[in-house]
Amino acid sequence: MMAIISDIHSNLEALTSVLEDIKKRNIKKIVCLGDIVGYGANPNECVEIIRKLKCKCVAGNHDYYVLGKESLNALNTYGVIAILWTKNIITEENLSFLNSLPLVIKDKIKNKKVIFSHANPKYPELWEYLFPDYVDDVFDCGDLIFVGHSHIPFVNSETGNILLHKGVVYLEDDKKYLINPGSVGQPRDRINKASYCIFDPIDLKVEIVRVKYDIKRAYEKIVKSGLPKFLGERLFLGI
What we know:
Blueprint: E1 2-5, H1 12-24, E2 29-32, H2 43-53, E3 56-57, H3 61-67, H4 77-89, H5 92-99, E4 104-109, E5 112-117, E6 144-147, E7 154-157, E8 160-164, E9 167-170, E10 177-180, E11 194-200, E12 205-211, H6 215-225, H7 229-237
Parallel strand pairs: 1-2, 2-3, 5-6, 6-10
Antiparallel strand pairs: 1-11, 4-5, 7-8, 7-10, 9-12, 11-12
Helix pairs in contact: 3-4, 6-7
């Protein structure tokens, strides 16, 4: 069993609750699809947790923004403020960790070519979004492709969308799949619970899991830190 997490965005409350849920399920293997930082009030704490997990992890665009590897021109005002704030407080050790992360990880699970990437793995440096109704030609990359970035959980096969929001999908052995676990720290599918997915390579099963967390606490810390109030308010709405 493997847990796939993504888009934590410095939300310590959400990350802690998700990891507690993963632990209760006795899942040992975790993969992180990037965007550990940005938006929320606890970038250092979240990066340190991922560092201690020693899990496979790719970089996201917000991780690159904090490193100064990408221009902030693509971000809205709220995002820019959050990145500049994060740059001011993040430690050198955590920056070094973010800088060590690859954009794509390739793996082999049973007879499947598995890809982990934050955005479209064909052009990871372009940070292209993949949505349920827009998958491009991503299936050329592998058999099971896990991506984040959109903050919207879904499972999509070559033949069309299968699942949104939550639940279990049994994968067919002869098909390729694109899987987004959703966002741990800033869900945008109008469900305000943290989102991640569990992949069972034995039964070829994917489950999207939603986890309650202390949104009020996360909101209060955002406001207290001086970050835009909207970044906390949106957590209640799942947008």
